[in-house]
Automatic annotation (TrEMBL), chain B:
Keywords, comma-separated and alphabetical: Signal
Highest taxon above the source species: Bacteria
Gene Ontology biological process terms, A to Z: peptide transport
Limits of the Solute-binding protein family domain: 66-426
GO CC terms of this entry: ATP-binding cassette (ABC) transporter complex; outer membrane-bounded periplasmic space
Name of the protein this chain belongs to: ABC transporter substrate-binding protein
Gene3D superfamilies: Dipeptide-binding Protein, Domain 3, Periplasmic binding protein-like II
Length: 297, 511, 267
C-alpha cells in the first residue's frame, strides 16, 4: 500500500510540467524573490539534476527505514510536519464525527420512529438540502450566518477551541445529512423486528425496550456505514481546511500540490492511506464487539 | 460502551483544546497572505522584518531615502568599491548577547552565501575593522550598495542563531519584538523585547496568522476576529468600507502592475504592436471597476513615490482603440472576417501567464483579454505559479506575463535598472529580449555621474526612452489596502513593506 | 432493450428527472437561442440588476449572467455525462472480468482498486488537475478514475454469486455466449444499482469540478464554471448577494436533481 501510493505520487509529480526547482523556489523565497538564481540554488541543494530513477531509489531506501525525507519547501523533516498537521486533522475529524453523531442520531431515530410523518419529511428535505451542495459552499453559508451576521464565532484560524466549532460543524453537518438517513432505515428495521415487538408485548416500557434492544441493533449498520463515510470525511477535510485555514493535512496536501513538494505529498498521501486502513480495522473491531455473530462481510 | 467511548473522546478533546483563550485585550492579532515557512531570513525574512523581529544595517524612510538602522553611518571609497559601516552602540540581541562587529560579519557572510535579490558575486569580503566597524569590499564598483543592505535577507542575527551548518535554529534578532511561537506556515507569535535599543513597543503580544484566501481574510476583520488585515482584495474593500468593524487604509506603494513582454517574440518585437496593446487597455476601467481605486492608471514604469525616476510631466494614460487599430494596420496586422488580425497568414494569438497569489491579477488578465479582443488580438490567459515567470524567461517560452513587480526589494531603482535594463537578457521580472543599445549604455554610465542635477536629467532621459519603447507595459500603480479595527491606534503602513510598524501601535482599552 | 428493464420511477425520482431536464433545457436553450457571449466584459455595466437585455443581470465585469450560467451548466452537464459514461463502462466491464475470470486477473484488479481507494478521490483529482492546470480533459480523467471503482466493487460483489449460480451455469452448459449470459442474467441484477450509482456519480463529478475550482486548481478564468463563479462572486456577497446566489442555486439544483433521480440511498 505504502509503496504503491508513494510511487503513484512520485510518478504523477514527476510528470507535472515546468521546472520543479522554480516551483520550490517560489514557495521558499516568496513571489517577489523567485528568480533563476534562487531556482538554481534550490536545484543544486536538492540534487534535482540527478536522474529520476536515482531519486526514486533514494526515496525508496529511505522509506524502508521510515524516513520520509525533508520537505522541499521548509526544509523540515516531513514526519515532523505531518505529526503536527495530523493532530489538527484528527481533532477536526473526531469533532466532526461527534457533531454528526449528535445531530444524526436524534434526527434519524425521530424520523425512523414515525416514517413519512411531517417530522420525517422535513428532516429528509433538510438532509437533501445539505447533501446537494459542496462542502465548501456549506462552509461559506455557515460563515455568513454565524460569523458575519450573528458574530458569534471566528471566521477562520486556529488556536482556540472557538475556532474549531465552525469547521467541525460544517463537516459534521455534511456527514450527518447522510448518516441520519441510514439511522432512520436502521431504526425502522429494528422497531418492526420480531424481537422488538416481543419485548413491547412482554410489557417493557417504550424507553427501556429502546435502551435494551433498540440502540445496539440500530448501531450496527450505522457503524458499518461509517467506514464508507470515511472517504467523504477525508475529502471533506481537505475542502473544509481550505475554507477555514485550518492547519491540517488536507491544507498541507493542497499546498504541497502547488509547491511540488514531493516528500510532503508522498507523506500526506501515505498518512491518508494508513488512516483509512486503520479506521476500517477499528470499525470492523467495533462491529464485532457489538455483534459477535459477524454480520459484516 | 458507546457512552464510555463518548466520554473518552470528550476527555481527549478537552485535553487537546484545554489551553485557555489568551487575554486578547493586550494581544494584537494580524493576518496577511504571507506564509512563514522557515526561520531563515533568506526564505521568510520578509515576515520577520515586517514583524520587527530582525533589523538591517540600513533602514528606509517613507520617501525611499536611506536612513540609519543598526549602522549609524556609512561611507564608501571614491570608486564605490570599499564600504565602511559604523555600528550603533549598546544594541543587544534577543538572547542578550551584544551586537558587535564580529556578529555582523558572521551574519552577513552567511547571508551573502544564500540566494538574494542582487548579484551573487558582488561581495568579495566582509571584515571587522574593530569592535564597532565593519568593512565590506565589493568585486566591482556598485553605487547603490547601501540600499542592498536594507533588504531583509541581510538582517543581522546573533551568532547563537545558527548551528554548525549555518542553518537557523533559533531566531534571535535585535528588533522590538522577539519570536515566542512559530508554527510554519500558519502562525508567528511575538512578544515585546524589553531591552530594545530604541523606543520599546506598546502592545505586549502580537500574533500573525496566515490567511490563505483573500476573501477569508476580509471576513476575519469584518467579523471583529482580527485587528489588522493586510493585502485586501478589491472586492473586500467595498465590503469593509460599509462595515463598522474596520477602517480601510490605502497607501500607494512602490509596486507596479505591469505586463512583461517577450520582445524577441516576432509579433511583439515591433514597437507598434506593443504601443497598440498599451493603447487598447482601459486602465481607467481596470482601476475604478476592478481595483476600486481612483487615479492609479500607470503611464510609466515608476509611480509618483519614486523620486527622480517618476516623470510628472507625462500625460495620463488614455485608452485609444482607434489609434491602436491604426498602429496594428500600419504594422501589417490586418483584421479578417473572424475579427482576429493576421499577418502573412498567421493569426495574432498571444499567451499570457499570471499567478493566483494576488487575487486582482487574474481579474485584470480577464479584462485585458477582453479589451484586446476588441482590437483583434486573441489572448489566452494561463493561471500558473509565480515561478512560471522566471522559468518562462529562462527557457524563452514566455510571451506575456501579468505581474505585480515590487520595486521596494532594493529601494534605489538604480539597482533594479542596472540589473534588468542593461542587456538583451533583461531580468526575470523585467524586460525580455528587448534591444535598445542607447538605453543600455546610458544606464551603464549612470553610476559614475557624480553631479546630482546631471544625474536627474540623465535619469529622466532614460526613463523617457523606456516609457516610449515599452519593454514592459505598465498597467496600474499599486495601491495597498489594509483593514484596521477601530481599537487600533497609530496605525501606519510602510510603503516599502519592510515593517508592519507594530511597535508604534497602541490599543484602545475595551469600552 | 436495456431501457425496458429500467425500474419505474418513484415520485421523488420523477421530481429529480424533471429538475435535471429543466436545467438541461435551460442550458441547451440558452446556447441555441440566447447565445450571448459569456465572456464579453462591459465594465460600465457591472452589477446591473436584471433587465430585459440581461435577464439575470450582470456580474462584476458587466458580463451577462444569463449567458454565463448557461455556459457553466452546459460545461457541468458535459463533464458529468462524460465521467459517468466512462466510469460506468469501465467499472462494469472490469467488475465482470474480475468476477468471471477470478484468479490473477481478479487479484490484479483488486490491487489497483485498493490503491485508488487508499487515496481519497479528491487528492487524486487535485494531483491530476495540477499536472495540466486548467485542463478539462485532465479533470475528466481524474474524476472518472475515482468513480469507476465503485461500479467495479458493486458489480463484482453482485456478479460473483450469479456467475457461480445455477441459472447462469446452465445457460453456459447450453452453450449460450457470454454476452447473452450477461444480458440475460447479470445485467438485470445490477441495472438498478448501476443507474443509481450513475446518478450519484454525476452529482459527485459536478461537485468535484466545483471544488477544485474553489481551490484554484480547476478550470481557469474566464471560463464560466460554477465553482469558479462562486469564488469570484463570493467577495461581492455584501454588494450583490443575488449574484452569488445564482451559481450556488444552480449548483444546488443540479446536484439535488441527480440525487433525487438516484432514488434509494445506496451505500
Amino acid at each position: 500500500m505504502a509503496w504503491s501510493v508513494g510511487t503513484l505520487t512520485f510518478v504523477l509529480v514527476r510528470t507535472l510540467p515546468g521546472d520543479m526547482a522554480y516551483k520550490i523556489a517560489a514557495s521558499r523565497y516568496g513571489d517577489d524573490a523567485v528568480s533563476t538564481a534562487s531556482a538554481a540554488a534550490v536545484r543544486a541543494e536538492l540534487g534535482l539534476d540527478s536522474p529520476a530513477w536515482q531519486q526514486y531509489f533514494h526515496w525508496l531506501s529511505n522509506l524502508i527505514t521510515l524516513d520520509l525525507g525533508d520537505s522541499l519547501v521548509s526544509g523540515a523533516p516531513v514526519v515532523q510536519e505531518l505529526q503536527h498537521q495530523l493532530g489538527y486533522t484528527l481533532l477536526l475529524a473526531v469533532c466532526a464525527m461527534l457533531v454528526s453523531v449528535i445531530i444524526a442520531f436524534p434526527l434519524g431515530i425521530l424520523s425512523g420512529a414515525r416514517p413519512s410523518s411531517a417530522v420525517d419529511n422535513s428532516i429528509m428535505v433538510g438532509s437533501t438540502f445539505v447533501r446537494a451542495q459542496p462542502v465548501f459552499s456549506l462552509g461559506l453559508l455557515l460563515i455568513f450566518l454565524f460569523a458575519m451576521e450573528l458574530n458569534w464565532l471566528p471566521v477562520a484560524g486556529f488556536g482556540e477551541p472557538r475556532h474549531l466549532i465552525l469547521p467541525a460543524l460544517t463537516l459534521g453537518l455534511s456527514l450527518a445529512a447522510i448518516s441520519n438517513r441510514i439511522i432512520r432505515s436502521s431504526t425502522i428495521n429494528v422497531l418492526h423486528s420480531a424481537y422488538y415487538q416481543f419485548a413491547r408485548i412482554k410489557g417493557m416500557s417504550r424507553f427501556s425496550t429502546f435502551c435494551r434492544h433498540g440502540i445496539r441493533n440500530i448501531l450496527l449498520p450505522v457503524i458499518a456505514f461509517m467506514g464508507i463515510q470515511l472517504i467523504g470525511l477525508i475529502e471533506g477535510v481537505i475542502m473544509v481546511e481550505s475554507v477555514f485555514a485550518w492547519p491540517g493535512i488536507g491544507h498541507g496536501l493542497s499546498h504541497a500540490v502547488f509547491a511540488r513538494d514531493i516528500p510532503m505529498l508522498q507523506g500526506a498521501a501515505l498518512v491518508f492511506g494508513l488512516m483509512f486502513v486503520a479506521l476500517n480495522t477499528l470499525i470492523d473491531v467495533c462491529c464485532a464487539r457489538l455483534d459477535p455473530r459477524g454480520v459484516r462481510q | 460502551m458507546f457512552r464510555n467511548l463518548c466520554l473518552i473522546i470528550f476527555i481527549a478533546l478537552a485535553g487537546l483544546t484545554g489551553c485557555s483563550a489568551p487575554d486578547s485585550s493586550d494581544t494584537l492579532s494580524i493576518s496577511g497572505p504571507f506564509e512563514p515557512i522557515s526561520l531563515d531570513p533568506a526564505r521568510s525574512g520578509y515576515i520577520f522584518s515586517r514583524m520587527q523581529v530582525i533589523e538591517t544595517l540600513v533602514d528606509i524612510d517613507n520617501k525611499g531615502q536611506l536612513k540609519p538602522g543598526l549602522a549609524t553611518r556609512w561611507e564608501h571609497s571614491k570608486d564605490n568599491r570599499v564600504w565602511t559601516f559604523y555600528l550603533r552602540p549598546n544594541v543587544v540581541f534577543h538572547d542578550q548577547s551584544a551586537m558587535n562587529a564580529d556578529a555582523v560579519v558572521n551574519s552577513l557572510n552567511i547571508a551573502f552565501s544564500k540566494p538574494a535579490p542582487y548579484p551573487q558575486d558582488l561581495v568579495e569580503a566582509v571584515t571587522a575593522l574593530n569592535e564597532s566597524t565593519v568593512q565590506i569590499t565589493l568585486s566591482r564598483p556598485y553605487r547603490p550598495f547601501a540600499s542592498l543592505l536594507t533588504n531583509y535577507t541581510t538582517a543581522i542575527l546573533s551568532p547563537a542563531s545558527y548551528n554548525e551548518s549555518q542553518e537557523i535554529t533559533k531566531l534571535s534578532g535585535t528588533g522590538p519584538y522577539q519570536v515566542e511561537e512559530f508554527q510554519p506556515p500558519h502562525r508567528v507569535g511575538v512578544t515585546k523585547f524589553q531591552n530594545y535599543w530604541g523606543e520599546p513597543a506598546h502592545v505586549s503580544k502580537v500574533v500573525y496568522t496566515t490567511g490563505h484566501r483573500a476573501e477569508t481574510r476580509a471576513l476575519m476583520v469584518a467579523s471583529g476576529q482580527t485587528d489588522i488585515v493586510y493585502n485586501l482584495d478589491a472586492a473586500s474593500v467595498d465590503l469593509l468600507k460599509v462595515s463598522k468593524k474596520a477602517k480601510v487604509d490605502s497607501t500607494l506603494i512602490p509596486r507596479t502592475i505591469l505586463i512583461k513582454v517577450n520582445a524577441s517574440y516576432p509579433a511583439l518585437a515591433d514597437v507598434k504592436v506593443r504601443q497598440a496593446l498599451s493603447l487598447a487597455i482601459d486602465r481607467q476601467g481596470i482601476a475604478t471597476k476592478i481595483l476600486r481605486v481612483e487615479d492609479i492608471e500607470a503611464n510609466q514604469l515608476f509611480g509618483p513615490s519614486m523620486g527622480v525616476w517618476h516623470d510628472a510631466t507625462l500625460p495620463p494614460a488614455e485608452q485609444d482603440v482607434k489609434r491602436a487599430n491604426a498602429l496594428l494596420d500600419e504594422a501589417g496586422w490586418l483584421q479578417d472576417d473572424s475579427g482576429i488580425r493576421h499577418k502573412n497568414g498567421s493569426p495574432l494569438k498571444l499567451n499570457m501567464i499570471t499567478y493566483a497569489n494576488r487575487a486582482e491579477l487574474i481579474v485584470i488578465a480577464t479584462a485585458l483579454q477582453n479589451q484586446w479582443a476588441q482590437i483583434g488580438v486573441d489572448l489566452r490567459v494561463h493561471m500558473e505559479n509565480a515561478s512560471a515567470i522566471p522559468s518562462g524567461h529562462a527557457d524563452g517560452t514566455l510571451q506575456l506575463a501579468l505581474m505585480a513587480r515590487n520595486f521596494a526589494n532594493i529601494p534605489d531603482p538604480l539597482g533594479i535598472m542596472l540589473a534588468d535594463f542593461t542587456s538583451t537578457e533583461g531580468g526575470d521580472w523585467g524586460p525580455m529580449g528587448w534591444q535598445n543599445p542607447s538605453v543600455f549604455s546610458a544606464l551603464s554610465a549612470l553610476p559614475l555621474v557624480q553631479d546630482k542635477k546631471a544625474y536627474a536629467s540623465q535619469v529622466q532621459n532614460i526613463m523617457h526612452q523606456i516609457n516610449a519603447d515599452l519593454p514592459v507595459i505598465p498597467v496600474v500603480f499599486y495601491m495597498q489596502q489594509s483593514a484596521v479595527a477601530p481599537r487600533v491606534e497609530n496605525f501606519s503602513f510602510d510603503p516599502y513593506e519592510r515593517s508592519f510598524r507594530l511597535s508604534d501601535i497602541t490599543l484602545k482599552p475595551a469600552s | 432493450m436495456i431501457i425496458k428493464r429500467m425500474p419505474t420511477l418513484q415520485p421523488a425520482q420523477q421530481l429529480g428527472l424533471a429538475l435535471v431536464l429543466m436545467l438541461l433545457i435551460f442550458a441547451l436553450g440558452e446556447g441555441a437561442f440566447y447565445a450571448a457571449d459569456p465572456n464579453t466584459q462591459q465594465l460600465a455595466k457591472a452589477f446591473s440588476p436584471p433587465s430585459t437585455a440581461m435577464p439575470l443581470g450582470a456580474d462584476q465585469f458587466g458580463r451577462d449572467m444569463f449567458a454565463r450560467l448557461g455556459a457553466a451548466l452546459r460545461l457541468s452537464f458535459l463533464l458529468s455525462a462524460l465521467c459517468v459514461a466512462t466510469s460506468a463502462i469501465t467499472g462494469v466491464a472490469a467488475g465482470i472480468c474480475a468476477a468471471w475470470a477470478g484468479g490473477v486477473v481478479e487479484k490484479v484488479l483488486n490491487f489497483v482498486v485498493n490503491t485508488i481507494l487508499a487515496l481519497p478521490g479528491l487528492v487524486l483529482v487535485l494531483l491530476f488537475a495540477a499536472i495540466v492546470p486548467g485542463s478539462f480533459i485532465m479533470l475528466y480523467l481524474a474524476i472518472s478514475l475515482t468513480l469507476w471503482v465503485e461500479y467495479f466493487r458493486l458489480v463484482r460483489a453482485t456478479a460473483k454469486p450469479l456467475i457461480n449460480g445455477p441459472q447462469l451455469q446452465s445457460s453456459m452448459l447450453l452453450s449460450f455466449g457470454r454476452w447473452y449470459c450477461f444480458r440475460r442474467h447479470i445485467w438485470p441484477a445490477i441495472a438498478p444499482d448501476v443507474c443509481t450509482l450513475a446518478a450519484f456519480g454525476a452529482a459527485t463529478s459536478i461537485i468535484t469540478m466545483a471544488s477544485v475550482g474553489f481551490v484554484y486548481v480547476g478550470l481557469q478564468p474566464p471560463t464560466a464554471e460554477l465553482g469558479l463563479m462562486i469564488v469570484e462572486l463570493f467577495s461581492y456577497y455584501s454588494d450583490a448577494p443575488w449574484l452569488l446566489a445564482q451559481p450556488l442555486i444552480a449548483l444546488f439544483l443540479m446536484v439535488l436533481g441527480f440525487h433525487l433521480l438516484a432514488g434509494k440511498k445506496t451505500l
